[in-house]
Design goal:
It contains ten helices and eight strands. Strands 1-2-3-4-5-6-7-8 form an eight-stranded parallel beta barrel. Helix 8 crosses helix 9. By secondary structure, it is an alpha/beta fold.
Length: 300
């Protein structure tokens, strides 16, 4: 497989990862991104979906992952632009300002436009898609479409014409759900793994169904192998291919990230100690339990 495959998780700031992905006892100055960058080569910034980022904070994040020279962030576009469809100059400028520190240093691999299932392919939505692309023309844009109408040839032509990457997704089956794909419409390949928990129907959830434990699913080795083949097809022609796991419950996205990294031949690191204890079968090849001790200074 290509060395340009970067695998990681959607977000990193999860209290339920404490004592599982992150150690219970932490040394002075511990930052979760330092651990993330030891084990993966990317992470998707999900807080940008809810608020514009402060440049100072983004610069700090970049420093925390600097030891991994391959590490590259991706980020989600604010929901104001994709879900509320409010696109004004002031808000666009404010959002861009927060991500410029990563864009200008080559550490932002993609900006993801995540549209809801209700956003179907028609003339009005196509035109708004183009407006968003033009508003964020400096950025390497990728779009996640959850409705299968965007599989139409004309819809794919819009992606190609405006150099927007197509986000290939894995998700539970539901009415007119986007199926698994291996499409590449720009220089950026992108894959998002939402899990297959039937209680996590992305279409039903966005239509207003009661929220379940949305991201509780652990991919099997067979399911990961199936996607590894698709990822390989995308990565053969992409400059960079990002694979993002969005099944964060109980650290499962981190587990699956480590497993897929091993499948594609990336450099292997020992898994966090408590994570190996919880997932001994999935992480049996991730080094001895004591191998993780060097990561953190002792706490007095």
């Amino acid at each position: 497989m290509s060395s340009k495959i970067l695998i990681g998780t959607a977000g990193w700031s999860y209290p339920h990862w404490n004592g599982l992905v992150y150690p219970v006892s932490r040394g002075n100055g511990f930052h979760p991104l330092e651990l993330i960058a030891r084990h993966t080569d990317t992470v998707e910034i999900n807080s940008s979906f809810y608020q514009a980022l402060k440049p100072e904070l983004v610069k700090l994040w970049a420093k925390k992952v600097a030891r991994n020279q391959n590490f590259t962030f991706t980020a989600k576009l604010h929901q104001q632009f994709t879900h509320q469809r409010i696109l004004n100059d002031a808000d666009v400028a404010a959002f861009k300002e927060g991500l410029y520190p990563l864009l200008r240093t080559g550490k932002l691999g993609a900006l993801l436009m995540q549209f809801p299932w209700s956003y179907r392919f028609n003339e009005e939505n196509r035109d708004f898609f183009i407006r968003v692309r033009r508003a964020f023309h400096e950025f390497p844009l990728v779009a996640e479409m959850r409705h299968s109408s965007w599989m139409a040839e004309e819809a794919q032509g819009v992606f190609l014409d405006y150099k927007v990457g197509f986000c290939n997704i894995d998700q539970p089956a539901y009415t007119r759900a986007m199926p698994p794909t291996a499409l590449l419409t720009s220089a950026v390949g992108y894959v998002r793994m939402h899990g297959r928990n039937p209680q996590n129907s992305l279409g039903a959830y966005e239509a207003g169904a009661p929220r379940q434990r949305q991201h509780d699913y652990l991919y099997s080795e067979a399911e990961l192998t199936e996607w590894a083949d698709r990822i390989d097809r995308v990565a053969r022609f992409a400059e960079n291919t990002f694979v993002i796991f969005n099944n964060d419950a109980a650290g499962k996205s981190f587990v699956n990230s480590l497993q897929l990294k091993e499948m594609v031949g990336s450099r292997r690191m020992p898994a966090p100690l408590e994570l190996r204890r919880k997932y001994p079968v999935e992480l049996e090849h991730m080094g001895p339990l004591q191998a993780q001790q060097w990561l953190f200074p002792a706490v007095a």
